[in-house]
Design a protein that fits this description.
By secondary structure, this protein is an alpha+beta fold. It has ten helices and 18 strands. Strands 8, 9, 10, 11, 12, 16, 17 and 18 form an eight-stranded mixed beta sheet that branches. It has a seven-stranded antiparallel beta sheet with strand order 2-6-7-1-5-4-3. Strands 13-14-15 form a three-stranded antiparallel beta sheet. Helix 2 crosses helix 3 and helix 7 crosses helix 9. The structure holds zinc ion (ZN). The site of zinc ion has 8 residues, from loops.
Length: 409
């Protein structure tokens, strides 16, 4: 069994080298988009890597100065994106041709060499070297635990440019003894389920709630003030309105950063290795959320995703169907199980807050999805306030906390 982790490492890049990396990222994105457009040309979407390679490799080599492995990585990106669009179409969902814009670049052992305190990276004009910027404390960082651990080998990396920083997300893997799968699973795969909504912005399977009050307050404030400005209708009013918009957006983001920090802290406190959200694509239809809410959910998901990566915690989305109507204890699914904020199972009588029941279901769905698939990192349970819940609805209290009270079930 393989265990994989991603360790983000900040790079110290000199300005000349940064310019080279920027050019390389630009050409990589161009290549990925070029191959994607090709995949979507014609009557059928092409997802075969071999076909896409045969059709586009020469062109991309001619148009760019990319290393041949970067050309292949860009083609793989395009093929994977085309596949995920097809998968959505097969489920009857809407999806359009992907377009890559976020600055990133895929490295493997042919294009990158990972040294103890610096990395050497291929660019469109030779190689550059960049030092790692590592946290001071030596213990308990994912760097010490995985990247510098002799048990893990480095398999590649993705370079990202975010908030003015070059970050290398380094992929590490190790082989885990397969004769003790239960033990490994207990250590490695506990899930935090998270339900997103309008009244409560987020609810975790551990029973922690983040209300939407603060968010609603700023949103109403914004809409009122925007109304005032709109009545005046002048150019001055228009500019003011945009300024208010930017200011409010900044406030929303601060709130969402705080919630995302707390969510990641919750996952760490409860030793979860996965945070599961529902798929956000159709969340407005399901929850009656406004565009503002959808915007907030997407930001929150993004923030949690990159903050969780720092601790080696995976963030995943699961199929949201019936997560609010299904009983997390017995599995009985019925629309009448739920009445606004309260959930009461018509079959087994289980009662709890509807959003909390949904958070548990989201965790359980991830658990079920990964347990039916073969191989790596089998999860054991969804984390509750104390103990875990497995797919059969079975509840296991933690061995070391006899007599804890007040834990939501
Ligand atoms: Zn039930």
């Amino acid at each position: 069994m393989e265990k994989r982790r991603t360790v983000p490492v900040k790079l110290d890049v000199e300005s000349d080298d940064a310019a080279l990396l920027e050019d390389t990222v630009d050409e990589f994105l161009w290549a990925a988009n070029y191959v994607t457009r090709h995949a979507f040309e014609g009557e059928y979407v092409t997802t075969s890597k071999t076909t896409l390679h045969d059709d586009t490799y020469e062109d991309v080599r001619e148009e760019t100065a990319l290393h041949s492995n970067h050309v292949q990585a860009a083609r793989n990106k395009a093929a994977d994106a085309a596949k995920s669009v097809l998968a959505k179409w097969e489920q009857g969902k809407k999806a359009s041709m992907p377009h890559f814009t976020s600055p990133h670049l895929v490295y493997d052992h042919r294009t990158a060499t990972f040294h103890d305190d610096y990395v050497s990276l291929a660019t469109v004009d030779g190689r550059i070297e960049a030092d790692y910027v590592l946290p001071d404390e030596e213990r308990d960082t994912p760097h010490a635990e995985y990247f510098f651990s002799e048990e893990y080998e480095t398999t590649g990396a993705e370079l990202h440019y975010t908030n003015g920083n070059w970050m290398l997300h380094i992929h590490c893997k190790t082989d885990v003894e397969s004769d003790t799968p239960g033990q490994d699973a207990t250590e490695n795969r506990t899930i935090l389920g998270v339900d997103l909504g309008v009244n409560n912005l987020a609810v975790a399977s551990t029973g922690t709630f983040w209300t939407g009050e603060e968010f609603d307050h700023w949103r109403r404030e914004y809409e009122t003030r925007r109304g005032d400005f709109q009545e005046h209708g002048t150019r001055w009013a228009h500019e003011n309105m945009q300024a208010v918009g930017r200011k409010e957006e900044g406030r929303f983001k601060l709130t969402l950063h705080r919630i995302s920090n707390e969510l990641v802290a919750e996952a760490r406190d409860y030793e979860c290795s996965v945070i599961a959200f529902e798929d956000l694509t159709d969340i407005r239809k399901r929850t009656g959320a406004s565009w503002g809410h959808k915007w907030a959910f997407n930001r929150l998901y993004e923030y949690v995703e990159y903050k969780a990566a720092e601790y080696g915690i995976d963030v995943e989305q699961v199929d949201p169907e019936n997560t609010s109507r299904r009983c997390s204890t017995c599995g009985f699914t019925h629309p009448d199980n739920r009445e606004r904020e309260s959930f009461e199972c018509l079959k087994c009588g289980y009662q709890n807050h509807a959003d909390y029941n949904a958070a548990k279901n989201i965790g359980l769905r991830y658990l079920r999805r990964t347990q039916t698939g073969a191989g790596g990192g089998e999860p054991v349970g969804v984390r509750l306030n104390s103990g875990t819940l497995n797919t059969n609805g079975g509840y296991e209290p933690p061995a070391d906390s006899v007599g804890q009270s007040g834990s939501p079930r």
